[in-house]
Amino acid sequence: MAIPSDGQMTWKVEGAIDAALHLRHSSTEPWSPYEEFPQYFLPDPPEFSKGYATFLALLKRGWKTI
């Protein structure tokens, strides 16, 4: 399956306690933790923020940061 190039990413969703990468395919979808997208998930090195490796990969694919 090809990775779409039009998704959205954010680090802090309203009501969340900690900052971690959240994803959605369009503005009509709710935000979901990046771990719920195994097709995009990349493991992070220990010193990185949760989701940073996935964030960089999706950013290179054209995903937008909200």
Main features:
66 residues, alpha+beta, four-stranded mixed sheet, 1 helix, 4 strands, globular
Helices and strands in order:
Blueprint: E1 8-10, E2 22-24, E3 32-33, H1 52-60, E4 64-65
Parallel strand pairs: 1-4
Antiparallel strand pairs: 1-2, 2-3
Radius of gyration: 11 Å
Number of E-state strands: 4
Overall structural class, as computed from helix and strand content, comes to alpha+beta
Order of helices and strands: EEEHE
Shape: globular
Average pLDDT, all residues: 89
Domain module count: 1
Tally of individual helices = 1
Description of the molecule:
- It is a single chain.
- Strands 3-2-1-4 form a 4-stranded mixed sheet, with no helix packed on it.
- It has 1 helix and 4 strands; from the N terminus they run E-E-E-H-E.
- The chain has one domain (8-65).
- With 66 residues, the chain is an alpha+beta fold.
- The termini are far apart.
Q: Care to give the gist of this entry?
A:
The protein has a four-stranded mixed beta sheet with strand order 3-2-1-4, with no helix packed on it. The protein has one helix spanning 52-60, and strands at residues 8-10, 22-24, 32-33, 64-65. The chain has one domain.
